Amino acid sequence: MRVVFAENLEYSLGARDLLEGVSLELYHGDRLALVGANGSGKTTLLRLLTGELEPVRGRVHRPEGVYLELLEQDPRFGPGDTVEGVLKSGFARLERLEAELARLETGLADPEVYHRWEELHERFEALGGYKRRSNYESVLKGLRFEGREGERVAVLSGGEARRLALGALLLSGADALFLDEPTNHLDLEMVDWLVGFLSGYGGAAVTISHDRNFLDRVTRRVAWLRRGRLRFYEGNYSAFRAQRAAQEEQEAREYANWLKEKERREGILEQARRWAPSSAKHARRMHSLEARMEQFLQEAPPELEGPDAVVRMRFPVEAPGPGRVLEASHLRKGFGGRVLFDLEHLLVSRGERIAVIGPNGAGKTTLVKVLLGQLPSDDPAGRVRTGPGVRVGYYDQKLSGFDPELTLFETLYRLLGEKAHAALGAWMFPYEAQFKQVKNLSGGERARLALLSLSLQQANLLVLDEPTNHLDLETVEALEQALLAYEGTLLLVSHDLFFLDQLATRTWHVRDGRFDDYPAPPGEYLERRKVAVVPEPSRPAPPAAPAKPQPKREKSKWHLERERERLEAAIAELEARLSALHAEANQPGLTPQDYARIAAEEAGLRERLEGFYARWGELADV
After folding, report:
1. Helix H segments across 443-556?
2. Where does this protein have coiled-coil stretches (predicted)?
3. From CA 412, how far away is CA 409, in angstroms rounded?
4. Closest by alpha carbon to 397, among 163, 184, 183?
């Protein structure tokens, strides 16, 4: 089913043409990544598709009854809204579709009614209509709102409010989800959950994200918005990068060959012009060569587009620092009656690149602040020592050390004097933007200002807490290249697994009061951790009791769908209990009796699941 069709869209922002002749078509099941530099018009295009903005030229066609939903960067809720109320707000649409299906069921003998019912039923099923209760439970658990259903939205933090908006969007029953940076404020486990949830969603999904690992897992086509034009590539983001690199190489080769041929023809034509006055034959030859040259120039390939301007980042180091960069002992921190971490000893050596990972709220940033001396250890014996000559650079996206009333130029002038304009220009701040007050900067501008400040410090220990948030993909890749060339020691807190795997050689995992230290990138660590789950004991399942014969009673398709919905909710609950058992099996200090109890409970759960899966399979074929 086609959900939206945009044709020859044009849109201007002031004197700047943002979109020029953009066309796009989306169907149920499409998985599209929308990529391009910050300011290229990606979010504007999504707002045009949903009808929030009107194009200067062109048209957007949305079939009657189609519903499109955009994830807002700054969601707003009512003062009395609760978590449950917000998440279930989208159910009303699905309930209307369900009521229409029930009404049509009474007249299925009519071919026209049956055709309408079949179309509506297919759409209802694709949008999660039969799974809305199990989807609701899944969102509560996956985005960590379980047990908080009655909580007022007004008390949520900014990150929690954005997660809640994401959950409401996923449950909205929309025909197309426009996901603008959906992984912001999600940890690695939440991102994994979101990938799984989207895999079962039958509508269209368009994703803008700086997380390359996430894009690779959830998209099958890429739309590249550049200089007002949209180009499409088959495959995920990594495939797009490979195709684009090959395409640029081919275009450069073809253009170089054309220039070489043009130079050769110009030489021949110049010689013919010199000889033309000597005879009529030479004059005719010159006119023939001029005509062919004109045709050759008309068939010229398009001139190569120069590369998009990107930040040229460098993090210079004045001196490499000592071999023992940082050493800590007896570090303990708790919050709300639970222990975040308790470390006897920790050593960071020169040149190490450490990734700090873990769920939101596990204590990653707290650990970093204790190591930097910004927070004390709860243990009175706690000590943190930096080696002689260690100079720490801390990435602070909150810009706590900056005066919010000053402009960008005034801020940099205090650091660089007359070089302030040039430095801001090199970091992609146009001249007019340099007079914005710090308090009015966008998320991307704040991130670039924080990184610019960091680049001036010549620190030999860089501590970066979520540096890729609010950066576009091109800037993330520029940051990645700069950090690969950095000669000091790195401590990185991030949920961007692709970014971390490119840079880190050591992983610290903070979770449930535990601290794991692993000498490899986080991708390898997480993969090894997955296979460490205790295997299921190999023992025959007890024979199922023979079923008692029941009188055969025909059920309507409607009732069968209701039964399948109940089964899916039960399956989700049993799978969640299995996951909890696996997590328990990974805890240290378990006795053989504990493992035996876990194995027995797991066997019982799997037996029940087998029966549910079998019945669900029967219903799926109805």
Report:
1. 443-455, 473-485, 497-503, 522-530
2. 245-299
3. 5
4. 184
pLDDT of the residue at 613: 65
Work out whether strand 68-70 and strand 176-180 pair parallel, antiparallel, or are unpaired: parallel
Quote the tokens at residue 560.
Answer: 């069968």
* Positive or negative torsion for Cα 425, 428, 429, 432: positive
Are residues 208 and 180 in contact, defined by beta-carbon separation less than 8 angstroms? yes
Check if the beta carbon of residue 10 is closer than 8 Å to that of residue 23: no
SS3 34: strand
Neighbours of 559 (CB within 10 A): 10
**223-227, long-range: CB < 8 A, 24+ apart:** 223/24, 223/32, 223/33, 223/34, 223/35, 224/35, 224/36, 225/19, 225/22, 225/34, 225/35, 225/36, 225/40, 225/41, 225/42, 225/45, 226/36, 226/37, 226/40, 226/308, 227/40, 227/305
pTM comes to 0.72
Residue entry with tokens 């290249």: 481
Angle CA 187–189–194, to nearest 5: 95
Q: Would you say 228 and 22 are in contact if contact means Cβ atoms under 8 Å apart?
A: yes
- H or E element, residue 356: strand 353-357
CATH fold group of domain 2-235: Rossmann fold (3.40.50)
Q: Tell me the HSE value of 428 on the side-chain side, using a 13 A CA sphere.
A: 21
Q: How far apart are CA 273 and CA 13, in angstroms?
A: 50
DSSP 84-128: HHHHGGGHHHHHHHHHHHHHHHTTTTSHHHHHHHHHHHHHHHHTT
How many angstroms separate the CA atoms of 458 and 294, rounded? Answer: 56
User: Which token pair is 7?
Assistant: 């044709």
| Residue among 488, 472, 475, 607 nearest 537 (CA) | 607
Q: Find the helix or strand (DSSP H, E) in which 22 lies.
A: strand 16-27
Instruction: List C-alpha distances in Å: 272 to 278, 285, 294, 497.
Output: 10, 7, 15, 63
Assess if CATH 1.10.3720.10 describes domain 324-523. no
Taking only the tens place, the pLDDT of each residue in 469-504 is 888 888 899 999 999 999 999 999 999 999 999 999
pLDDT in tens, 159-191: 899 999 999 999 988 899 999 999 988 999 999
Q: What is the pLDDT of residues 191-246, one digit of tens each?
A: 999 999 999 888 999 999 999 999 999 999 999 998 889 999 999 999 998 888 88
Task: Judge whether 341 and 333 are in contact, CB under 8 Å.
Answer: yes
| Residue 437 DSSP class | B
Chain Cα centroid distance, residue 59: 29
Q: Which of 57, 26, 17 is nearest to 223 (CA)?
A: 26
587 or 551, greater pLDDT: 587
What span, in angstroms and rounded, lies between the C-alpha atoms of 139 and 133?
A: 10
Q: What string of DSSP letters covers 364-417?
A: HHHHHHHHTTSS--SSTT-EEEEPTT--EEEE-TT-TTS-TTSBHHHHHHHHHG
